[in-house]
Specification:
The chain has about 170 residues and is an all-alpha fold. The protein contains eight helices and no strands.
């Protein structure tokens, strides 16, 4: 049962990736595997969220054995999973966020986003830019909103996690 569900999710992820890559000529020069992996991960999370009852202990141990304890070689997998090959996980910061920041216009917003992606705290950024920490927080909020609008980032945001503007009837007015 688990193997067929995994195969179905992997197939669906590949189909969705193929459709996205066919629609957008700019993507053809890029590696589709990170997108396919993230799509498969989202499908697995969605399937898990829809479960009416939690998985039994044996099923969880099997998932941990196969997917969490990722073997270093495909030959370390046994039984139904012998054909699976381990992969390097997607690093969202390096593969999605930093390239998206580099595509932003050269503004203070972008500068703040770059410094935050390097691990700097608001206070250190404020000192470097000679601005108030509150201004840095405002710039970061606006940078985050701009990054969420980036086409490549959009591909990795699940529908239920997308930010939407409140309509007039939603505001209680």
């Amino acid at each position: 049962m688990l193997r067929s569900q995994v195969q179905d999710m992997a197939h669906e992820a590949l189909v969705r990736t193929y459709v996205v890559w066919l629609r957008d000529p700019e993507k053809r020069d890029r590696n589709p595997l990170p997108y396919a992996r993230e799509t498969a991960n989202n499908l697995a999370n969605d399937a898990y969220d829809k479960l009416a009852e939690p998985a039994d202990e044996a099923g969880l141990q099997e998932c941990e054995r196969v997917f969490v304890a990722r073997p270093s070689r495909a030959s370390d997998l046994h039984g139904d999973y012998a054909g699976l090959v381990p992969h390097t996980p997607l690093d969202p910061l390096e593969e999605l966020v930093i390239p998206a920041i580099r595509r932003m216009k050269r503004t203070q917003r972008r500068d703040v986003a770059e410094m935050r992606s390097q691990g700097m705290e608001d206070q250190a950024i404020a000192e470097r830019m000679k601005r108030e920490p509150a201004r840095i927080q405002t710039l970061m909020t606006k940078a985050a909103a701009e990054l969420r609008e980036d086409e490549q980032i959009q591909l990795h945001i699940r529908d239920r996690h997308r930010k939407t503007r409140r309509r007039e009837e939603d505001t209680g007015e």
